[in-house]
Write a structure and sequence with these properties.
Shape: globular
CATH class of the largest domain: Alpha Beta
CATH superfamily of the largest domain: Peptidase S8/S53 domain
Strand content: 15-25%
Distance between the termini: 49 Å
Radius of gyration: 21 Å
CATH architecture of the largest domain: 3-Layer(aba) Sandwich
Order of helices and strands: EEEEHHHEEHEEEHEEHEEEEEHHHH
Number of helices: 10
Helix content: 25-40%
Number of domains: 2
Largest sheet: 7 strands, parallel
Number of strands: 16
Amino acid sequence: MWDENELKGVEFIPEPTDSRILSATDPNTIGHQDGWRSEVIGWDPEPIPVVSRQRRNSQRIANLGILVLVSIIFWAASQYLIIELPPPTSEWAFEEVGARDLQDSGLTGDGVRVCMVDTGIDNTHPDLKNLDLVFKDFVTGSSDPVDHGKLAHGTMMAGILAAEGYLQGVAPGVTLGMAAALGEDGTGGNSGNEESVANAIEWCWRTFEADIISLSLGGESDPDAERDGPTTNAVRLALANGVYVVAAAGNDGGDTDDGRVATPSNVAEVISVAALDKEGDVWSGSSRGSSTDNDGQDRTEPHQKPEISAPGVGIISTAKSGEYYSSTGTSDATVFVSGILALILEAEPALKSSPSLDCITQVKAALMESADPLESDIEHDSHWGYGSINGEDWLEQIRTSGIC
């Protein structure tokens, strides 16, 4: 359960479809169109009682004696002693996307540059101490890595991608660019100025020279907007310069779903990601996509929204102060796809040496062909896309197709 003191003053809004799912919005976000939110997509945090690696090493012998003593004391009274060892992880999710199979072939993401625009990062976490990190702060201008989020969303996303310790991320060998452009908005949520987010995206590809930009954020897509906003323009420019962009589909699924994925995952060439639970079912809060774009044109393969699904329910990852938290949302699912793509770019470096929009489209077509449909007779579903991601099959499809 949450620490009462830690969350003092925080206001969360329960989703109408499931009161256990909490979200926060910032109606004062500055942007070109009403309704845009530069807010973190996916946040249902719960601390996980895990002792850090450093503390485990020093306590291992002492703990063994304590456990034996506790066993003797309680056995006589209750004859039941339930101790969960080791503490929980989300290993099922990494297995499900094929990360472990790709890692078994020697892939780590080495040589691939992944950029995240988020709340920042607390890289003092034991599982992130070996992270190859480049940090840029668009919130306060800090030169030292910091997480501006109330509950360290950026640190969690970084852990899913590149943790190397108690938890093992999808691609721990990547060079991570963390652009801190979101922060606590005064209501317990994380949001940001759209101009800052756009500037952060530009920094990712122009200065950091990212191969992949992973966006676990989004805003409302306004179909009546007469022009694209700064964030969408920044994403289009990144794509035009051959950078793969992966973004969260959004968390407004259910009865209140507006029928459109979040901005900027609605941009055609962006890979829009929906969330799945441990049973392989699409998460009810995952946003549905529209069959048409903002211009009223029919979306065509492989750019129908969302494109792909990945685990995003109850994902355990790194948090501030060496802790581990669990969260739910399309944020988490997005990072799994970004991490798998990083492993693929390591395996096939030609995909990142001189990419183009046409190459990005070909890689997306391979993703479509390799996805595992949630229902065999449906080619694309507005809720779960072309299916769940299969890392090995995606790589094999790329290799057999001879793309780019």
